[in-house]
Amino acid sequence: MSHETACFYGVGVGPGDPELLTLKALRHIQQADVIAYIANPEGHSQARQIVAEFLRPLEGAMTELPVVLTMSDERSAINREYDAAAATICRHLQDGHSVVFLCEGDPLFFASFSYLLDRIKPQFACVVVPGISSPQAASARLQQPLTILAESYAVISGRHDDEQILLTLTQFDSVVIMKAGRSRQRLLALLQQSGRSADARYLEYIGRHDERVVEDVHTLANEPGPYFSLFVVTRQERLSR
User: Measuring CA to CA, which of 87, 98, 132, 140 is 20 to 30 A from 33?
Assistant: First the structure.
């Protein structure tokens, strides 16, 4: 195709609803020589699934490059996988091809693209196309503002230790807890301990066919949840309007 010059594009495709794809993201996808994305060992990719309908007309006109990551907790192992993926992408760039890397949500918000960008940016031109991230999609789904007036807002990973999560819940009016799945049991206990269970809402797979919204977190099963899940914690008594 070669509509683009050799460049590495991180393209945010949003949290799940294909209609949340931006016009700029769609243009780069349609003009790419190579479409890359994270896939699991079985070949499934959440990011590719989001844009599947837009890729069908391009079959045969572009190359697909699944980047299989095992998502090991051993950092040295996953760094080797990022090194290998970056080397493959660089070979396409050296051949003069444009490479679009599909990113769920936003490319620079809890995204694997960040690690590839660090490896590729010193050698080749890179462009980042922002996407709608899951906290914004969750806020819209709940019809609940994340902040108003002088309220403070924090985003924290559910993988933080108990002390850090409790401190965040205490210090900030609004908190989004990402990567909630494996830590869900612990997070439910911390919400209770901080007195913020009533402020919390829980969401899975926002904007997808299997989306789930739980308004009362006391009804959640005390067991791990899926990777694509988060808690949104906002004050029930908002600051004076």
Answer: 132
